[in-house]
Hints:
Order of helices and strands: EHEEEEEHHE
Mean pLDDT: 95
Helix content: 10-25%
CATH class: Alpha Beta
Structural class: alpha+beta
Oligomer: single chain
Largest sheet: 5 strands, antiparallel
Number of helices: 3
Amino acid sequence: MKLPIIAYGDPVLRRKCTPIEKGYPELDTLIENMFETMYAAHGVGIAAPQVGLSIRLFVIDASPFADENSPEVKDFKKVFINAQILEESGEKWAFNEGCLSIPDIREDISRCATITINYLDELWEAHTETYSGLAARVIQHEYDHIEGKLFTDKISPLRKAMLKNKLDSISKGQVSVEYKMKFPVQKKNR
């Protein structure tokens, strides 16, 4: 089932998420729905806060980025439960990022080249792995979501000020997308 994607401005996108306990109700269905939602929106990753849940879960399928320069993301489809980045290292490099919760805005974001992360997969098996390149970048972007951070937090204050009207429009639902979105409830002036 395709879920509505939560738009910029909703408080759930700013909360640090809580760990998931084994036995979380219908987790398999949620994971399946998150993948379906991500694919329908042509994304390569989606985190639980983007579907309205403040839990430490994100899914990734970065295979659309696979090419001769990025073979590490060929067949790179994973589920990350209760992830913790242990180390970020290597030279920072910029890449033009976007976000399903912030449509029509893309910015060059600098991130470390390599990360080491521990997480549980959908079978509750523990992993500690190191990733580099685009795989590391996609993980860092989604990891930021479960920490209550957005890619727009990493741009300069001047650039963010220049994007303010676009960001405000998104939070007011004044954006056209080809997928279902849920916009923050606007407070009415009295």
